[in-house]
Amino acid sequence: MGNTQASNAILAKARAMYGRRLTARNYQELLNCRDLPDLISYLKTRTSYSEALQAANPATTHRAQLEPLLRLNLFEQYASLCRYEMNIGHDFYRYFIIRSEVQAITTRLQELHAPDGDVSIYTMPDFIKKHSCLNLNAMSMATSFKMLVLALEGTPYAKILQPFADDPDFALENSGLLELEAALDSFVNSQVEQIASTKLSGKSKEEMLYLLRRQSDLRAIADIYRLKSVLRADRAFIKKRVSLSVSNMTPRQLDNLMDAQDAQDVIHRLVNTPYASEFYGASFDYIEEGVRKIDYRWHLKKLRFSTNPSVVLFCYIFLAENELTNIVHIIEGVRYGLAPDDIATLLVGVGD
Fold it and tell me: What is the pTM for the complete model shown?
């Protein structure tokens, strides 16, 4: 009985949180903001971000300070749902902890790759920090990739990154960072697939595994498209720099995508994958936005109609992350003085 109540609580909680999303009117008014202080003031006073931005002074808060506050708010939502999820014993809360840890490591790697920027001490909600194995202060003090690996000693991430640190020819420059990110993504994907495989059964397991593999596939499609577009990369190059550890596609289908002649050929070859109907007739200027639109529709439908609490939880998180991406696009657009109509073309899911 308690398990059923906890499951129903997740369904109700996730859908109620989605009900507090930005409306079409909110988006339009954000697009009409003249500058960053105006935008921060609107988010603080007219949206559900008021608590997250309580300490933000619109007159003095910079973009580099605003985005971490918004991302921390997203992680607080992770934590809120994790507390409910722990009660039904599916252990998917571990995914959000692992994912937060990987995000922290990736952020530090990006800072080491471009050392001219400020060093940030990655912030996590107390709930996630309590269960994390990372020493964030030690990570922030690392001034090289090898020092970062030492700061991760005793964690599973050190084992993943150590072979790269031991390779005298490895460097973060060029595509080295992509290799590290792919290795970390593969770890996240394999961990969450293992949770789903051991904690769920029957249709619930099948539905959840499809969702997880789908999320990995859509990101892989975008990455393959980008590597073909920018570098005309071949299969060997792509395999080292795109996470393909879990997939709804067969090895043959994946190889077929990686062997595409160019970026547009990648889209043509999707006809032979489980995603053929979703990409059929799709038109987009940027692969990331095209994939987001396709993925958004799928996750929104599942959020509204699935009775699987774990699926609904993951769908809500996807939709919340999509909203954050929209806000970041608006922030950047306002910062660079783009016209509202131009910024609006980058937004996904407005008014749904």
Answer: 0.89
